[in-house]
Every structure is written in C-alpha cells, then in structure tokens.
Amino acid sequence: MNKLEGTQYRFLRTIAGKTWRDHPSSVQLLRQTTKDMYNNNFDWANDTNRGISITAIETYCRLARLRYAGHIARMSKSRIPNIVLHGEVGEGFRRPGRPKKSFREGLRNDLKAFQLWPKYIAQKKIDRLVEDRKEWRKTINSAAQKIQEQWEQTKIDTSNERKQAKK
Length: 167
Prior knowledge:
Blueprint: H1 2-16, H2 26-32, H3 57-73, H4 80-86, H5 103-113, H6 117-123, H7 126-129, H8 133-166
Helix pairs in contact: 1-2, 3-5, 3-8
C-alpha cells in the first residue's frame, strides 16, 4: 500500500503543479486537487466528473473490495466468482514463509476497518449483510467517508508532531 500511496502522492503533486521541494502534505494535495467552490483547477470538467472527490488510495481500495464482495455475494451460487471466493484449494504445495494475503483475509480486514465486523458476525454470512444493494452501498460509503476523515486527521496530526519536533 505504501508504494501506491507514494505513486498517488507523486501524481497529485504533478496535478497541483508542486515539486517535492515545496513539501506539500498529502492532505493539502488531496484538497487542492478536488473540485469545489474554492478550487478552479477543474473548470474544464463537464458535469459528469465535475464533483469528483479524490480520496486516499487505501480508502479507495478498501471501498472497491467491499463493493465487489457485495456484487459477488448477490450472485447465484453456481457462478464462477462465487465458487472461487468460497472455495478452498485442496492440492498443490506451499512455498516457505508467510502465505500471501487472500481476498477473504483482505475482506475481513476491510470489514474491521470500516467497523462492519460486528454486523458480519451477527449475520454469520456476508450474503445477508449485502442483500439490499442500496443499503449496502450507503453503509460502506458512509464508513469510507469516516475512514477518510480519520486518515486526513492522522496525517495532519503526524505533520504537526514533526513540525513541533523540529523546533
């Protein structure tokens, strides 16, 4: 995730016309490259993409994984993506070391990060949690906004601590 965040930071710096020497923070770049009433960088945009909000790459990846998990869970049980998600590999060999993170493990971490894990445990299956598509989308989008706000506040706090340490 760090490499993706670094790449996003570099792209946002380019969009904002900043260099690494300017020392812009991630939060400043996100706010500067988002279209709102204070930013005229996106006057060229048409109405469909004018109000786009750019988020941290980690929040976006988690949200996309939860959306896709909901999509798969609503599929019929005979569809290949659903079979693969719920299936287990019974053959083959393991390489030494820690296994790579599976989709299900990432999904579990995302549910915990979005504070949906207690709901998942209560329902005992993700199928029941995502039955109503509109409600599921509303739930994960509001959780993503909270996560984004926490991320921004953490970045601001870390930046302030570094500035205080330099003094």
